[in-house]
Every structure is written in C-alpha cells, then in structure tokens.
Fold this sequence. Notes:
Radius of gyration: 12 Å
Strand order of the largest sheet: 1-3-2
Structural class: alpha+beta
Oligomer: single chain
Largest sheet: 3 strands, mixed
Amino acid sequence: MKITTTKTLDTKNDLLALGIFENDKDNYKSYDKELASELNEVIKDKRFSKKFGEIFSTRTKPFKKTLVVGLGKKEELT
C-alpha cells in the first residue's frame, strides 16, 4: 500500500483520508464546503467528536469514500 500526504486534494483517488484535531474549527471548509457542512452536522448531532481514534466515513463527492479520523488534542499528539 502506498500512502502519500499533500496540501491539496487529488480528486483522481478513490479514497480521501483526513485527520482532524479537536480544536480545528473550519472542518476542512477550505477544501470542500459540502464535506465541512456534513462534518458540522455530525459533530452537532454528536455522531463524531474528533477525539483520538474516532472515525467518520462518508461518500461526499468527488471521492468514492472519505474517511475522517479524529486526532484528539493537537498539543497531545506525539
């Protein structure tokens, strides 16, 4: 398996994996407004809290699947 990290999104891939810290407020709004809106909704409904190891998956376009992984508190990640 090949894993790469980039600052921009490559929409040619089937899966997008994103890590998000508890104190991140924009929820990837700068990348994708639809994804940010969905993340805001699931956080509000307490279906995803961004705690370390928590996972949320969705089929937000243009990717076949988007996986968001909670990274917990930024200052605690080593």
